[in-house]
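User: My instructor asked us to take a sequence, write out its structure as tokens, and then describe one feature of it. I'm not sure where to start. Here is the sequence I was given:
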Amino acid sequence: MEAHQLVWDVVCLAALSAMEFGCRLLYRRRPPILRVIAETVADFWARLRGFAAMGLPPRGWGEVPLVHPFLAASEAGEVIFCGPPDVDSPPASP
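Assistant: Let's start with the prediction itself. The structure tokens for your sequence are:
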């Protein structure tokens, strides 16, 4: 599998999971929409950060370029989180 496909698979799954989290939040508690948006975005970044923190890069991950906007590979092939450093993310929801 191509390295770019691997990273985009992870990013897309994080985005879909975060959107599901946002939908549940919206319909369960009915908070203000701007709060739902902020929490959904934070959940997305937390999921990507959590993936990087696992330290278990998939096979072929070493080919992901350092310039990728979300996740990259170090020279040693480790996963690097490339998200905005100022995001205060809660832990990813189950």
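For the description part of your assignment, you could build on this observation: Residues 3-81 form one domain. Try explaining in your own words what that tells you about the chain.
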